[in-house]
UniProtKB/TrEMBL annotation, chain A:
Top-rank taxon, per record: Bacteria
Organism: Flavobacterium fluvii
Membrane-spanning residues: 20-39
Keywords: Membrane, Transmembrane, Transmembrane helix
InterPro entries in UniProt: ARM-like, ARM-type_fold
Protein name as catalogued: HEAT repeat-containing protein
From TrEMBL, chain B:
Tagged with keyword rRNA processing: no
Name assigned to this protein: Response regulator receiver domain-containing protein
Keyword Lipid biosynthesis among UniProt keywords: no
Residue ranges annotated for the Response regulatory domain, each copy included: 6-121
Residue list for modification 4-aspartylphosphate: D55
Keywords of the record: Phosphoprotein
PANTHER family: RESPONSE REGULATORY DOMAIN-CONTAINING PROTEIN, STRESS RESPONSE REGULATOR PROTEIN 1
InterPro entries reported for this sequence: Bact_response_regulator, CheY-like_superfamily, Sig_transdc_resp-reg_receiver
Pfam families to which the protein is assigned, alphabetical: Response_reg (PF00072)
GO BP, one annotated term: phosphorelay signal transduction system
């Protein structure tokens, strides 16, 4: 008892800083206890939610599989299927259940094709989920709009392209990307018409994704790429140059040659590479005549092109640049000279060695 | 009536497993479902199935490891059909090197899968 009194007295006598630190320690301790209780409660809540979600998911998965095997060839929807649809329709009113239903449909839609895949697309529309996806397109949040467009892509909902095209120059690149993927997934080359009006840059990753989808689509009706080669958007021109290479667009030869004088160096380099791929010999003379005015990168790309399209008549041009100050150019020139005139190759070999040891 | 032929299906997508189980059981096969490669190996060792269907990307043990285990450790010549996704072409080649019999690229048609299964289990 005396000891406690002594502690109390000593605390009263202690300096204000010590009292303050005791108070702060107490407050922090209380905050930590409250936070631990909050995290524990949150964790329990998430666990319960996950359990409920798993239960519903299992139920909807079995509903979906039953739906897919209840179809018949005579009717668009069999009576069993209509029964399942009406049950699911009741569930989609609840946003939590709706989210699970959509994720269940997508889980299977991404893995299967053919009649069953198409049957899932029909189910999506018949259940009324299309209405919710379209509503997402009008949302203020960019992520909701992007999810809405992605759902329309995954369930192959055609005919809403005009609505989606409203987002062509959306300030958020994720929305623009989803819009582009929708158009190309569903309309292949025809979907690329958005390039006519695209003002924002098309990133390298976007370009890769679009090319991959086009290749998976196997669409034989290749669009006319010429207008895109004249685009004021450099990224569109660069993307079109990739298309020209991939789909051997010889028809665009004149437009490609004009691009050799484009204001962007990147475009000019990609153009040389595309012309080289297409073996357009006319470009060689143009580039030979303007070789000295071109940047180092362009010169190197041109010489790489010449490796495949060289002739005997190129010898004077090559000899002129045999002692170029840039090593890569010098080495490429000698390589080409060597393959043009095999008898003189020893001479170039000696020159190459000299360059390396210099 | 003869015993139904056993098929081990290793697939981590529960709804796809359910769909294929439904379809292949309708065709008279007995399906043993594994949610990952580890479970698939256990089922193969325990039941010695006539056919193995495996996804490539799975948790814990991948489809490639399942093929390697079947061919090199268990020394079994059970036909194996591999499911791959777009962009996994190189992994598919590895799967063939390890001894896979056939492959199907996702998304695939369940009807086509049934045809391939029937062809392998004649």
């Amino acid at each position: 008892m005396n000891e406690n009194l002594h502690l109390l007295e000593s605390s009263n006598d202690s300096s204000p800083i010590i009292v303050l630190s005791w108070w702060l320690s107490g407050i922090f301790f209380l905050i930590i206890v409250l936070l631990i209780l909050y995290v524990k409660r949150l964790r329990n809540h998430l666990r319960v939610n996950a359990k409920i979600e798993a239960k519903y998911q299992e139920e909807y998965e079995s509903c979906l599989v039953t739906y897919l095997y209840s179809g018949n060839e005579e009717e668009a929807f069999s009576p069993e299927q209509l029964l399942i649809i009406s049950e699911l329709k009741e569930s989609i009113v609840d946003p939590f259940k709706r989210k699970i239903i959509i994720s269940t449909l997508l889980k299977l839609r991404n893995e299967i094709s053919g009649e069953m895949g198409e049957s899932i697309d029909k189910l999506f529309v018949k259940m009324g989920l299309l209405r919710y996806s379209l509503a997402k397109l009008r949302d203020k949040k960019w992520d909701v709009i992007a999810i809405g467009i992605r759902e329309l892509t995954q369930f192959k909902i055609m005919g809403v392209n005009k609505l989606i095209l409203n987002n062509i120059n959306h300030p958020t690149k994720e929305v623009r990307k989803e819009m582009q993927l929708y158009l190309v997934h569903l309309y292949a080359f025809k979907g690329l018409e958005f390039l006519n009006v695209l003002e924002t840059p098309l990133s390298e990753w976007d370009q890769i994704q679009l090319l991959e989808i086009l290749q998976l689509n196997n669409d034989s009706q290749i669009a006319d790429i010429k207008p895109w080669l004249k685009s004021s958007n450099d990224s569109v021109v660069n993307f079109t140059l990739k298309l020209a290479k991939l789909y051997n667009q010889f028809e665009a030869k004149d437009e490609l040659i004009k691009l050799l004088n484009h204001k962007s160096e990147e475009v000019r380099i990609n153009t040389i590479s595309a012309l080289s791929h297409l073996n357009i010999l006319e470009a060689k003379n143009i580039l030979k005549n303007s070789f000295n005015e071109r940047s180092l990168e362009e010169q190197i790309t041109f010489l790489k092109m010449m490796e495949n399209v060289h002739e005997n008549s190129d010898k004077p041009f090559l000899l002129e640049h045999m002692h170029h100050e840039n090593f890569e150019i010098k080495s490429l020139v000698m390589e080409i000279l060597k393959s043009i005139n095999f008898e003189e190759s020893d001479l170039y070999e000696v020159e190459t060695k000299k360059t390396i040891t210099a | 009536m003869s015993n139904p032929k056993k098929i081990v299906l290793a697939e981590d997508n529960s709804v796809l497993s359910l769909l294929l189980k439904f379809r292949l059981e309708k065709e008279g096969y007995k399906l043993l479902i594994a949610v990952d490669g580890k479970q698939a190996i256990e089922l193969i060792e325990e039941h010695d199935p006539e056919l193995i269907l495996t996804d490539i990307m799975m948790p814990f043990v991948s489809g490639l490891e399942v093929i390697s285990h079947v061919r090199n450790k268990l020394n079994l010549q059970t036909p194996i059909i591999v499911f791959s996704s777009a962009g996994q072409e190189e992994i598919v080649l590895k799967a063939f090197d390890l001894g896979a019999t056939d492959f199907m690229s996702k998304p695939f048609s369940p009807h086509e899968l049934v045809i391939r299964v029937k062809r392998l289990l004649i």
